[in-house]
Design brief:
16 helices, alpha/beta, six-stranded mixed β-sheet, 24 strands, 3 domains
């Protein structure tokens, strides 16, 4: 028996390769499926099952392509309905895989069809669970994604409580836990950086598995502090239910070098978004007017999903040399399949053609502190609410909204006002500045190093004070 976790850091997502006696199951695969096929071929094994723990919302799974290429059976949990051939397993169903068995445990709560796969080894022992978004290390899945007219998030949270206590907490402490996500995923709020644990460890450390916790307490604690889901979640879930264009087709269409003339013509004729994925320092030094920055060196795919509201939006790329394939691939992981090409020779090629570029003013935290001390400047803090509430700059002219929701807060700021923009480290502030610039905000100054650097200056900061202590 072989188990391999294939973890993708930028999505904080774990897929799994399970092999026994020449047969393979892949759990929650990524969009680019050739890696799993190559792995099975190298082991002289055949992929028999593609096991989905639920309809994922935070990424587009590779289950449809993988099944087409290998003839494997796609398995979902009870009640799952798809537009392609799949098997909706029943609770307790046993799937044979070589010398081992995989038992389907229906664990609704994150979504209605959510399942946990229990691996039973060749000796008949419960070895591990693949818990999807039902149980993370340190947390559980958010129960607010499958709300319907007759089903509330409180209802789903109650289901999750029962699933955990009836199906998972009854397992032995030494059973290994392989979750679908780790820290950085928006599918939970308190995920551990670790990606493998045990049932026993989670009973001791996971707040949601406290033995003395009532269902009412569980519902309250699980729902407390959950931010609204990113706008692309529902769209990705629908793609996972109905199917999608093959990854190879998306890559072939998007990984195309375009001359400045071709690039400009497509941008104008297709109403394409120019997406600059270079490091933020390069964007600051020079970029195409009206282009948007979301760098590959940050949380690229989730930020694209949060900020570009139309999955069918035509996209043109500005990429570092040799990174076009990666950019198109990572866009496709969250359902952005309409990339039309990238600028050949990048910004240097654009400048050589005589076309205009723009820059973004960026100053050090020390210079920012000097200006704030000497004059009444306007500051825009685009960190998350929790970051801002924990500590922020004192002052009357401090505006705050999270970058995640910039599209909903355009009316909160004035396009004719000068703003000094900062985040925690400098990545998100440049994203925000690029979006605002593209919408006519021309008086923007980035604070390099963000709040991490600002804290080292002499500017007065406000610490969060719990209301109960006031």
């Amino acid at each position: 028996m072989k188990i391999e976790q294939i973890y993708t850091g930028c999505l904080a997502q774990g897929a799994y390769y399970i092999e026994s006696n020449g047969e393979v199951a892949i759990i929650d695969p990524l969009r680019e499926t050739q890696q799993y096929i190559d792995k099975a071929n190298n082991e002289n094994a055949k992929i028999k099952y593609v096991l989905e723990t639920h309809f994922h919302a935070d990424f587009v799974s590779g289950h449809v392509d993988l099944a087409k290429k290998t003839g494997a059976t796609i398995v979902f949990g009870p009640g799952a309905k798809t537009s392609y051939d799949s098997h909706a397993a029943i609770d307790g169903e046993i799937l044979e895989l070589g010398d081992i068995k995989i038992k389907v445990l229906h664990t609704p709560g994150h979504t209605l069809e959510s399942v946990t796969y229990l691996l039973i080894d060749a000796n008949g022992n419960n070895h591990a669970i693949f818990s999807g978004d039902t149980l993370f290390l340190g947390d559980v899945g958010r129960p607010d994604l499958a709300i319907k007219s007759d089903l509330t998030k409180e209802d789903l949270a109650g289901m999750l409580f029962d699933s955990l206590r009836e199906k998972i907490m009854t397992l032995a402490d030494d059973v290994i836990v392989y979750p679908a996500h780790g820290a950085g995923s928006a599918c939970g709020k308190n995920l551990s950086k670790e990606t493998v644990g045990t049932i026993g460890e989670q009973k001791q450390t996971n707040y949601a598995l406290r033995a003395d916790m009532s269902k009412e307490e569980f519902v309250k604690e699980v729902l407390d502090g959950i931010p609204p889901p990113p706008q692309y979640f529902a769209k990705n879930a629908m793609m996972n239910k109905t199917g999608y264009e093959t990854f190879e087709t998306v890559l072939e269409t998007g990984n195309v070098a375009l001359s400045p003339e071709q690039f400009e013509a497509i941008a104008n004729n297709e109403d394409a978004l120019v997406l600059d994925v270079r490091p933020q320092s390069d964007f600051i030094k020079g970029h195409i007017p009206n282009s948007i920055f979301i760098g590959l060196n940050g949380g690229f795919a989730p930020w694209v999903g949060a900020l570009i509201t139309d999955l069918k939006q035509p996209i043109l790329l500005i990429v570092p040399e040799g990174k076009a394939n990666e950019a198109v691939t990572r866009l496709s992981r969250v359902g952005y399949d309409n990339t039309l090409g990238y600028l050949e020779n990048g910004i240097e090629g654009w400048k050589a053609s005589g076309r205009d570029i723009e820059t973004l003013e960026s100053i050090s935290a020390e210079e920012f502190a000097n200006r704030m001390t000497s004059s009444n400047i306007n500051v825009l803090d685009v960190r998350k609410d929790g970051e801002y509430n924990a500590m922020h700059i004192e002052g009357d002219n401090i505006k705050h909204f999270a970058l995640d929701f910039i599209n909903d807060n355009m009316n909160a700021i004035n396009s004719n006002t000068e703003y000094y923009i900062h985040c925690a480290g400098g990545y998100r502030s440049v994203i925000a500045a690029s979006i605002l610039k593209a919408r006519g905000f021309n008086n923007l100054i980035d604070v390099a190093g963000g709040f991490g650097a600002i804290k080292k200056t002499n500017l007065p900061l406000t610490n969060f004070v719990c209301p109960s202590t006031l």
